[in-house]
Amino acid sequence: MNFDYSGSRTDVMFGRGRRDEAGELTARYGDEALVVTTRNAMQDAGFLDDVLTSLEGAGVNATVFEDVQPNPTVENVVDAADAGGDADAVVALGGGSPMDVSKATAISLATFDGTPTAEGIWGYVSGERSMQDALPVVAVPSTSGTGSHVDPWSVVTYTEENAKVGFGGDVLVPRAAVVDPEIADEMPASLTARTGFDAFCHLNESYVAKGADALTDAHALRGMDLVNRHLRRSVEGSSGSRDAMAVADTLAGFCETTSGVVATHAVAHSISAFGHDVAHGDALASVASEVARYNVENGDDETKRRYGEIAETLGAPIADRKLDAHLVVDAVDELVADLGLQASVGELVDASPQTLAENAVTYMGTALRNNPIEVDEEDVADIIENAY
């Protein structure tokens, strides 16, 4: 056995009420911070005030940018960077979108001398520019789904190109994360379902990915077990289950950092690239079982065994993991139905399977190459057609 494991470079502080520690953590990096969040949600619940009070108590002056949009664009990042001024650190408060904007903004503030452009930022996303430095990011997640508080990834959209792309590097890993499940208690059921399914996808995709290793396998299996036992209860409002989902989400972040994601995420990003208002969890739910079906039907014995284990973790009656691997399709569909996420691809976006497949191959090739089974554009189009 031979593998490399990155784990997490993030200091994780986990527990209810620990958002009050955000100021002390941020003060390690200076006395000026840009707080990136969404309008209304964190403010209405009082969590923005809690974080600002914590920063003030630690001697950190805060500027707030609260105009983060769902599926944020490069223009959204430019606006956040313009607000950043002389920030020494960026505090990301919220779900996946504030995390994405915070990381991209941290690069911009460190490298553009306060004058970022959409084209310049897109250069990092597309790989045309190398990431040399970024301001420290302190993450305070409000959802249990993206894993972004402990991973090196950011996802932004360039609407002119119909491109939604994940990009990453060591400089994007948050220096610290405050995982306070009290914040997740305020999530509505629909958001809990969507983000929780994202966590499940990070876990199951990393488990079958070409980049999987023994340590991420352990995290993924434990995380999927937590999802199976607690996501439905979390949607119903159980505080204890929301604590468990916050753990699962953190494990998922560890997994995607090292093992990566596969075709499910590649196709989901292409859906959101054309359907700018499509929630990421909905996009994932529309294709997850069809990607699993393709991989099981075309996979080798090890791929089948892994999908059989995923099905078993979801409660399917597995007698032989390889022979019963196909049961993962129904198990995933059952989870999707229980969460109320049954929309098809065609219901989510007005783009043909071929167009979506071409987009996925163009912009999410890394994830497709990490799929356990080799897929080309026609294979991806067939998967989407079956989910349409």
How would you describe the overall organization of this protein?
The protein has helices at 22-26, 41-44, 47-57, 74-84, 96-111, 118-126, 181-184, 189-208, 214-236, 239-258, 263-274, 280-298, 301-313, 327-339, 345-348, 353-363, 365-370, 377-387; strands at residues 11-14, 32-36, 61-65, 89-94, 137-141, 153-158, 163-168, 176-179. The chain is of the alpha/beta class and 388 residues long. A hairpin with a 4-residue loop joins strand 6 (153-158) and strand 7. The protein starts with 10 loop residues before the first strand and ends with a helix. Residues 10-181 form the Alcohol dehydrogenase iron-type/glycerol dehydrogenase GldA domain. Residues 192-388 form the Fe-containing alcohol dehydrogenase-like C-terminal domain.
Short overview:
Keywords: Oxidoreductase. Its EC number is 1.1.1.1. The chain has 388 residues and is of the alpha/beta class.
Break the fold down into its secondary structure elements and pairings.
Layout: E1 11-14, H1 22-26, E2 32-36, H2 41-44, H3 47-57, E3 61-65, H4 74-84, E4 89-94, H5 96-111, H6 118-126, E5 137-141, E6 153-158, E7 163-168, E8 176-179, H7 181-184, H8 189-208, H9 214-236, H10 239-258, H11 263-274, H12 280-298, H13 301-313, H14 327-339, H15 345-348, H16 353-363, H17 365-370, H18 377-387
Parallel strand pairs: 1-8, 2-3, 2-4, 4-5, 5-8
Antiparallel strand pairs: 6-7
Helix pairs in contact: 4-5, 4-6, 8-9, 8-10, 8-12, 9-10, 11-12, 11-16, 12-14, 12-18, 13-14, 16-18
How many beta-strand elements? 8
Give the helix/strand class: alpha/beta
Rounded mean pLDDT score: 94
Percent of residues in beta strands?
5-15%
Low-confidence stretches: none
Query: What do we call the CATH topology of the largest domain?
Result: Dehydroquinate synthase-like, alpha domain
Distance between the termini: 41 Å
Can you tell me the overall shape?
Answer: globular
The number of distinct helices, counting runs of at least 4 residues, comes to 18
CATH class of the largest domain: Mainly Alpha
Strand and helix order: EHEHHEHEHHEEEEHHHHHHHHHHHH
- By CATH, the architecture of the largest domain is named Up-down Bundle
CATH superfamily of the largest domain: Dehydroquinate synthase-like - alpha domain
Radius of gyration: 20 Å
Tell me roughly what share of residues is in helical segments: 40-55%
What's the number of structural domains? 2
User: If strands are numbered along the chain, what order do they take across the biggest sheet?
Assistant: 1-8-5-4-2-3
How can the largest sheet be summarized?
Answer: 6 strands, parallel
Keywords: Oxidoreductase
Protein name: Iron-containing alcohol dehydrogenase
Pfam families: ADH_Fe_C (PF25137), Fe-ADH (PF00465)
Domain Fe-containing alcohol dehydrogenase-like C-terminal: 192-388
